[in-house]
Write a structure and sequence with these properties.
The complex is a heterodimer of chains A (about 375) and B (about 60). With about 375 residues, chain A is of the alpha/beta class. Chain A has 17 helices and 9 strands. Chain B is mainly α and about 60 residues long. Classes of the chains: A alpha/beta (about 375), B mainly alpha (about 60). Bound molecules: iron/sulfur cluster. Chain A: Its cofactor is [4Fe-4S] cluster.
Chain lengths: ~375, ~60
């Protein structure tokens, strides 16, 4: 059992045509449905749904408050390394970029961790490039062992691994893995990932299945918006989510929707998504799934973030640095992408409180992991 | 408000135009009852925007 046959039974051009053929009547039917299907989701992300945005936002807010209450989870990325053997056309760490490479030692990780702890963080996302010699499974295991005593919840956004590797890392404190397909358009995927292990589309596509079989607590999916038609790409992310929720029902899920941002040596986005369209997508995801966590990074600007925390978003990063050592050890090293919201975690927490929302620094504990097993 | 009755005899009887004053009291009582039945909004410590959620996109 895997997602692949489902994926292959949905040819890109057919999916795209079906989304663009949706009408106002389809959108109204989707809005009125008590439980929405993937076909309803097509209507909600279609151009025909644009005039219904306010109604979608109201519904999305209601459903989010019903399921998550007045809370927003806070997390922060901790970049451990910018070494990478891949060429990705949109990334500052790409192998063909001549930048100083750096991988944090355990002592340096702890120095970075101390800053994040000082800000109040308990949920940390560990990020590395893909370089097996330096940041392979042994390194990741060492990082988890080093940081586990200091945080309540550890997530990873690193190269896709084999099932056995995940099974090795989960007992070391790995709670969540984020693995974005970037684009579900196979030809375009090849174009943006011409060299390195990441150019294997199917190995990446199968990663959530390997994670599910390994029994991960939570996984995150998404596409990099800007590479291809966002409506079609995000439909595949929803299709993937729908399959995973039914297959690995004990795992929790989150979705992200990063919009391509300027980075060293990067190409311009092929498709631009407006703020209005991003709100439409956030609401459509919420109307499809009550349970899924929706996460927004500091790629987005303060005004936008301040508003969408009311519309369906359930987790935010704040104070992020996207360079290894960025918090304490080497603040000047080159970042993976520019951030738009530079406010401190305390300022973000205050903004949430002003809006009647509770910032949540910790909603998990290592003892719960032991109990769940 | 929840009052069960109002004593208004004198106020109406001695008014310049008792019939008009009686009607004014009737409207006031009806207005009060209507507002009571419509239930007051919960008190809030801070302002909450009643404007549409997506107005910031305009
Ligand atoms: S996106 Fe990831 S795999 Fe690609 S170059 Fe950047 S760090 Fe490496």
């Amino acid at each position: 059992m895997s997602f692949r046959p489902i994926f292959e039974s949905h040819p890109w051009d057919d999916v795209k045509a079906s989304i663009y053929a949706k009408t106002g009547a389809d959108v109204e039917r989707a809005l009125a449905a008590p439980r929405r299907t993937l076909d309803d989701f097509r209507a909600l992300i279609s151009p025909a749904a644009a005039p219904y945005l306010e109604q979608m936002a109201q519904l999305s807010q209601q459903r989010t408050r019903q399921r998550f209450g007045h809370t927003v989870q806070l997390y922060v990325p901790l970049y451990l390394s910018n070494e990478c053997q891949n060429i990705c056309t949109y990334c500052g760490f790409s192998l063909d970029n001549k930048i100083a490479r750096r991988t944090l030692s355990s002592v340096e990780m702890l120095a970075e961790a101390a800053v994040l702890k000082g800000w109040g963080y308990e949920h940390v996302l560990l990020v590395t490039g893909e370089a097996n010699q330096t940041v392979g499974v042994d390194y990741l295991e060492k990082a988890l062992r080093t940081l586990r005593p200091h945080f309540a919840h550890l997530s990873m956004e690193v190269q896709p691994l084999d099932q056995e590797d995940y099974e090795r890392l989960i007992p070391e404190g790995l709670n969540t893995v984020l693995v974005y397909q970037e684009t579900y358009h196979q030809d375009d995927y090849k174009k943006h990932h011409p060299k390195g292990k990441k150019s294997n589309f199917h190995y990446r596509l199968d990663t959530p299945d390997r994670l599910g079989r390994a029994g991960i607590h939570k996984m995150g999916l998404g596409v990099l918006i800007g590479l291809e038609d966002w409506r079609t790409d995000c439909f595949y992310a929803a299709l993937h989510l729908d399959y995973l929720e039914r297959t690995y029902w004990q795992t929790k899920y989150s979705l992200s929707f990063p919009r391509l941002r300027p980075a060293e040596g990067m190409l311009q986005p092929k498709v631009e998504m407006s703020d209005r369209e991003l709100v439409q997508l956030i609401c459509a995801y919420r109307l499809l799934s009550d349970e899924v966590e929706l996460s927004l990074s500091t790629r987005e600007n303060p005004t936008f973030r301040d508003h969408v925390v009311q519309l369906g978003i359930t987790s935010l990063s704040a104070g992020s640095k996207t360079n290894p050592g960025g918090y304490a050890v080497a603040p000047e090293s080159l970042e993976q992408f520019e951030i738009s919201d530079e406010r401190s975690p305390a300022a973000i927490a205050a903004m949430l409180r002003r809006q009647g929302l509770e910032p949540v620094w910790k909603d998990w504990d290592a003892t719960l992991t032991a109990l769940a097993r | 408000m929840g009052a069960d009755a109002v004593l208004v005899n004198t106020a109406i009887a001695v008014a310049g135009q008792p019939v008009a004053m009686a009607q004014a009291f009737r409207l006031a009582v009806e207005a009060g009852r209507l507002a009571y039945e419509a239930r007051l909004a919960a008190p809030a410590a801070q302002a909450v925007a009643s404007s549409p959620l997506t107005a910031f996109l305009d």
